[in-house]
Design goal:
The chain is an alpha+beta fold. The chain has a single domain, classed as 2-Layer Sandwich (Alpha-Beta Plaits). The chain is about 40% helix and about 20% strand. A four-stranded antiparallel β-sheet has the order 2-3-1-4. α1 runs antiparallel to α3. The protein is globular and about 60 Å long. The N and C termini lie far apart (about 60 Å).
């Protein structure tokens, strides 16, 4: 199975400044310290929607894990339970939405690793080819 992530979507808080202070000074450091087994933490602030309507969520946090089992072990740990409870506590705009997702990444405008490796090897192979220049 590919890596998975815990996605936490926070509704717009009643007091943005108070939420930001709690989120950045208390919650993020807590998540970094207490969520065991994580491989990456991404914190996104939602700034707009394409049609200009107010976004339904203010922040989206993604906590990446190597497997579903690692995520579940973290969620069942004391640190995981404490961090989830704190997320609910600081979310003054309503209860955050918790989801589990399996990530699939598509990269555009970049060669694949295989193509890059092939390009590194190809010049060496060509340098061993007989020269087209005649030596008389």
């Amino acid at each position: 199975m590919a890596g998975v992530k815990l996605i936490v979507m926070y509704p717009r808080p009643l007091d943005i400044d108070a939420f930001e202070k709690l989120y950045l000074e208390d919650h993020v450091p807590m998540a970094v310290e207490k969520l065991s087994g994580k491989t990456k933490f991404v914190a996104t602030k939602v700034v707009a929607t394409p049609d200009g309507t107010p976004p339904p969520f203010y922040r989206i946090a993604e906590v990446h894990f190597p497997s579903l089992e690692a995520l579940q072990a973290c969620a069942q740990s004391e640190g995981g339970k404490e961090t989830v409870a704190h997320a609910v506590e600081i979310s003054s705009g309503g209860t955050p939405v918790f989801l589990i997702g399996e990530e699939q990444v598509f990269v555009f405008g970049s060669k694949s690793l295989w193509d890059r490796l092939r390009a590194c090897v190809a010049p060496q192979e060509n340098s061993m080819a007989p020269s087209a220049v005649s030596h008389k």
